[in-house]
């Protein structure tokens, strides 16, 4: 049996020394991997260099990525090379990535140069043309400006590629919200499950995640499987649920 896990958080490159990232540590993904390794299961573990990782194990293969595009390429390759009993997509993936950036002076100059081509109206078409222009610098952006203007573009929804590649795999998605009611959390999580064709979703709220506590609810489209109150409990809940019926869903 082979299972694919993603863990940690992607980083989207601004320039050669700066990135946009998130606060994910990969701790939950690590706990899930450790629980699966104890069961003797072979794991492909996709993560980042900054994230926490399980100890070396002969059944564990680690694949390091940085940004969303790297993650997408890695998953496409792995899903083409192997058949997975389950995919546990716990990685916090960036929703946006830098498309272009300018100093305040360069941005205003570029806008003023383009305006006559668009009837002196700022429009989505003008913005697309502006963003398509070459990045201001290929190395480190200068800090010699009072304002840095940056345009972000939406990243591909990586989780939606998983079932497209392997419809029979068991897919576990994750949904994190902040300070919402349990009813809202469950509804949004189930909406995410349906949209991404996941079989399970782990719903959690950032306000209930502390150093020694992590409350997560494992849901299907129509019921709650259970609730874990720590990362090891959540890991055990996910692993036990997946292995209860060893036939792939679909």
Automatic annotation (TrEMBL):
Entry's Gene Ontology molecular function annotations: phosphopantothenate--cysteine ligase activity
UniProt keyword annotation of Ligase present: yes
Keyword Glycoprotein assigned: no
GO biological process: coenzyme A biosynthetic process
Pfam families hit by this protein: DFP
Superkingdom of this protein's organism: Bacteria
Gene3D superfamilies: CoaB-like
NCBIfam families for the chain: coaB_strep, PRK06732.1
Protein name (record): Phosphopantothenate--cysteine ligase
Source species: Enterococcus gallinarum
Lineage: Bacteria, Bacillati, Bacillota, Bacilli, Lactobacillales
């Amino acid at each position: 049996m082979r299972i694919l896990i993603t863990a940690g958080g992607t980083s989207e490159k601004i320039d050669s020394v700066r990135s946009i990232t998130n606060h994910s540590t990969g701790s939950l993904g690590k706990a899930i991997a450790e629980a699966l390794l104890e069961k003797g299961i072979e794991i492909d573990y996709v993560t980042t260099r900054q994230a926490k990782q399980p100890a070396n194990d002969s059944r564990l293969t680690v694949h390091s990525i940085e940004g969303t595009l790297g993650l997408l390429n890695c998953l496409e390759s792995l899903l083409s090379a192997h058949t997975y009993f389950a995919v546990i997509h716990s990685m916090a993936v960036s929703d946006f990535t830098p498309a272009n950036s300018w100093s305040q002076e360069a941005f205003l100059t570029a806008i003023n140069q383009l305006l006559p081509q668009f009837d002196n109206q700022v429009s989505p078409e003008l913005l697309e043309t502006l963003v398509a222009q070459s990045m201001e610098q290929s190395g480190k952006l200068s800090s010699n400006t009072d304002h840095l203007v940056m345009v972000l573009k939406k990243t591909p929804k990586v989780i939606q590629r998983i079932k497209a590649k392997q419809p029979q795999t068991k897919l576990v998605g994750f949904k994190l919200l902040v300070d919402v009611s349990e009813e809202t959390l469950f509804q949004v999580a189930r909406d995410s499950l349906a949209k991404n064709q996941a079989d399970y979703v782990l719903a959690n709220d950032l306000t209930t995640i502390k150093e020694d506590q992590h409350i997560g609810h494992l849901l299907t489209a129509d019921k709650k499987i259970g609730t874990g109150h720590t990362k090891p409990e959540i890991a055990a809940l996910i692993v036990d649920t997946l292995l209860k019926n060893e036939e792939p869903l679909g």
